[in-house]
Amino acid sequence: MLKIFHLLFWIGIILTITSCYRSEVQKIGLTDNWQFKQADTGNWLPAKVPGCVHTDLMDNGIIDDPFFADNEQTLQWIGETDWEYKTFFNAEELKKYERIDLVFEGLDAYADVYLNDSLILTTDNMFREWTVDIKDLLNPERNDLYIRFYYPERIEKDKAAQINYKLPDERGFTRKAPYHYGWDWGPKFITMGVWQPVNLRAWNEARIENIQIIQNEIRDDTAFLTAVFEIESVKDQPAKLILTDVENQTIIKSEIQLSKGTKSYPVNFFILEPKLWWPNGLGDQHLYKLIFALETKNAKDQKTERIGLRTIKLVQEPDSIGSSFYFEVNGWPVFMKGANYIPQDNFLARVTDEKYQQTIQNAVDANMNMLRVWGGGIYEKDIFYDLCDENGILVWQDFMFACNMYPGDEPFIENVKQEAIQNVKRLRNNPCLALWCGNNEVDEGWFNWGWQKSLGYSEADSLEVWNSYLKIFEDVLPGIIKDYDRKMPYWPSSPKQGWGHEQALYSGDLHYWGVWWGEEPFEVYEKKVGRFMSEYGFQGFPNMRTLDSCLMLEDKHLKSPALLNHQKHPRGMQLIQTYMERDFKVPELFEHYAYVSQLMQGYGIRKALEAHRRAKPWCMGTLYWQLNDCWPVISWSSVDYYNRWKALHYFARETFKDFLISFEEKNDSLYVFIVSDKLQSVNAELDLRIISFDGDEFWLGKQVVDIPANSSSIYFVKEVIGFSKNDHLFSAKLISNNKILASNIYYFLPVKDLKLPKPNIQKEIIKTTDGYQIVLKTDKLARNVFLSVDGDGFFSDNYFDLMPGEGKRITYIPEQAIDSFESEIKVISIFDTLLPSRSR
Fold first, then answer.
1. Measured CA distances, 789 to 124, 644, 784, 812, 819 (Å)
2. Which of 183, 348, 474, 619 has its CA 20 to 30 Å from the CA of residue 266?
3. Is the peptide bond before 495 cis (omega within 30 degrees of 0)?
């Protein structure tokens, strides 16, 4: 049981109670009666808050689905005009309160706000919360709230005209999600509207503005902490601060003297026998739920916080090859396995709690322990970080700056400062938080993308723009981390050096885009391994059912304008074709082409994942680009917009397991690596085989191995000669106590050069209470077996290799009942894509 004790920092009283305080701070959501219209024209129509103009136009039948076909091209007018929103509310029940605040948790982005015809607020930042004391403006009954949103690109042009140089992109003037302007995986929809909740907050005398939990030291038997109460008080007055543990109702009560205004009041305490919070795969994610209460003579307030006890460090120390870059959690170096995360929709308010839960579960199910929240999106909603807390997913958190330079005038800097303070204070207590990073690829862009030349910068221009960079990312942001979250690491730019520089391999984090952008072969992933691989990737088509959602039947061909609108990289289709021709035989059927593109994506990124893990401890993290999508699209994601797993996600799940068998072929010898992320050593048996695709055994080997904790080593070397490499494979399994800890298959040649036999895949369908089990067997190798059904559901495994003579059992859980599953299910392997068919 948790034991919390107050250190005698102030005079305190320790009590035990059986009930928690109820807050007298009243919070009333303004979600009703909203209307909207195009500015200065048209009729008022119903609107939803939170929401945005695009979804409101859809809900009223004014526009068709922006994601369908090439509708995006005809809807750009929405982001090129101003919009108006209004509502009304009755505040009579709030008149008894001393303070009544109107709180906007998020307005997108430039807006004037009027209450009862009085201008009360002008906003210019999507990422900030805005609060106005409105008590003196309230009518006894009806109150009218009106907001006019101004389209950003007009304001950006006005701001650009006021300086004597150009930014790489004018969106840099606006504090708004950069991806809304379009990206090489996302459409351009410049949204406006009330994208976060609006609340009335009424209170007397004093309230808790924020709670910070500082973990000073964690020992085996005691955790020493400080709770910092940030309190807003209308006057100097006495008060009580109370800390309650929900588990055992222990209370700490301290008498203090509040000062008028917003001040901080620290209270030290400690926890005996602390239970640590661990990343996914290394231990439990124990969370302590604490209630922090404030009492004055006539008022009460309280906040609840969940904390996880853990230490985290970013270790950068000089070594024989450069400088390390790894995260140490609870004293252990931890290899980070995960992906980059982007917003889950272009229209943010429609991302449901259920979708957040599924997205984080996708990461957990793929054995990830870190996600990077990319700097071109948003600071995510609280539920995202709460779910990461609960599931052991560490968060590399970018500030919202990406692929651009930014102005350095005082209003802009002050705006950024307030944005950063608010979001750091909001997120700092989450145990999932591992790093604050200043930006995405701004440093690299400045030094490697030719901006200064292409934009015609003079020497004075370059100095001014670079000094603005230094002001934001080397001064303001690290200063805020120091003041508000001093225990958390800060990294100014991801990456610090571009992938074209040799030094990038030896220190810092690395975005490696020689594969894809540079058209280098996948094998280069095995050579270009940095200290922490924070971004790299390759595209694949989404699930065919996802394409069904945005394409007509006649649009399912590679030159369809509708399909190409869902491919935002300018060379995307050409690059997919080029890489496919290198390693695969290009199918004729469109559906097969989409399937092979997924295999190719998974094949390439799995090669990178294995190389990164083999290189431990030189390399201590691999975050591929990207986990998810914001719309139906051909992209780098491993899970598409509808949360359907692509081949890459299944491959990542296997490659990210606690134990990995991996291979490296050199000079007619195959080196067998075993990688362990476990914090305990393990004894196991290594089962090795060379077999033909028909199932004939050429060679068998077994070896007992002792695998140290947190290690990567070569355990076996086999000369691979004397057999034909186009029809044989190398199979390895790691077995302990009759349990397979890891398995992998090595093919000696690219898929297109293999002599694949035609498999006879037999299937048996078994109905279960919640779905089906499919038992598969084959007489010959069936490579990349793909199961599909005309309905939504989840296959426990897919895109796998089925070995001759071995059976495999797969579970399928449908979202809806299927009348004739046995006849509906389709099973193919890559062999089927080699057969001639109609033209794609």
1. 48, 13, 16, 10, 12
2. 474
3. yes
Name the phi and psi angles at 615, rounded to 5: -80, 5
Check if the beta carbon of residue 421 is closer than 8 Å to that of residue 206: no
CA distance 660 to 118: 64
Mean pLDDT of 261-286: 96
SS3 letters for 355-396? HHHHHHHHHHHCCCCEEEECCCCCCCCHHHHHHHHHHCCEEE
Q: Is 0.90 topped by the overall pTM?
A: yes
In degrees, to the nearest 5, what angle opens at C-alpha 760 toward C-alphas 756 and 762?
140
Across the chain, what does the average pLDDT equal? 95
DSSP SS3 for 602: helix
Number of H helices, E strands in the chain: 15, 48
**Confidence grade of residue 834 (pLDDT, cut at 50, 70, 90):** confident
pLDDT confidence of residue 768: 93
Q: Residue 6 — pLDDT band, cuts 50, 70, 90?
A: very low
Classify burial at 334, counting beta carbons within 10 Å of its beta carbon; exposed 0-12, middle 13-18, buried 19 or more: buried
What's the pLDDT score for residue 837? 55
Partner residues linked to 688 by β-bridges: 701, 732
Residue 636: Cβ-neighbour burial (10 angstroms; 0-12, 13-18, 19+): buried
> pLDDT (tens digit, 9 = 90+) per residue, 633-646?
999 999 999 999 99
Degrees (nearest 5) of the Cα angle 212, 213, 215?
A: 145
341 within 8 A of 374, measured Cβ to Cβ? yes
Burial environment of residue 32 by CB neighbours within 10 A (0 to 12, 13 to 18, 19 or more): exposed
Residues 333 and 616: their CA atoms lie apart, in Å, by 11
**Per residue in 363-391, is it b (16+ CB within 10 Å) or e — as a string?**
bbbbbbbbbbbbbbbbbbbeebbbbbbbb
Measured in degrees and rounded to the nearest 5, phi and psi for residue 371 equal -125, 140
645 alpha-carbon distance from chain centroid: 16
Residues 6+ apart with CB under 8 A from 713: 673, 674
| Under 8 Å between Cβ of 316 and 323 | yes
718: phi then psi, degrees, rounded to nearest 5: -125, 125
> Cis peptide leading into 50, omega within 30 of 0?
yes
pLDDT given for residue 248 in this prediction: 67
List Cα–Cα distances, 318 to 69, 463, 490, 786, in angstroms. Answer: 52, 31, 18, 47
Q: Which of 785, 806, 807 is nearest to 795 (CA)?
A: 785
Distance, CA of 412 to CA of 406 (rounded, Å): 9
Considering Cα of 301, then 306, then 309, then 311, what sign does the dihedral take? negative
Q: End-to-end CA distance of the chain: give it in Å, rounded.
A: 64
Helix 353-365 crosses helix 382-391 at what angle (to 10 degrees)? 30
For the segment 507-564, what is each residue's pLDDT rounded down to a tens digit? Answer: 999 999 999 999 999 999 999 999 999 999 999 999 999 999 999 999 999 999 999 9
Distance in angstroms (rounded) separating the CA atoms of residues 692 and 698: 7
By C-alpha distance, which of 119, 85, 120, 84 is closest to 101? 120
User: What is the Cα–Cα distance from 364 to 339, expressed in whole angstroms?
Assistant: 11
Taking CA atoms, 163 is separated from 407, 408, 580, 701, in Å, by 9, 11, 47, 71
The per-residue DSSP string of 428-466 comes to TT-TTEEEEE--BSHHHHHHHS-HHHHTT--HHHHHHHH
- The 3-state DSSP class for residue 425 equals helix
Please spell the DSSP secondary structure of 684-726, one letter per residue. Answer: EEEEEEEEETTS-EEEEEEEEEEE-SSEEEEEEEEE--SS-TT
pLDDT, one tens digit per residue, over 346-362 is 999 999 999 999 999 99
741-769 residues labelled b (16+ CB within 10 A) or e (exposed): bbbbbbbbeebeebebbebebeeeeeeee
Token pair of 643 as six digits:
């949360």
Taking a C-beta distance cutoff of 8 angstroms, is the pair 671, 715 a contact?
A: no
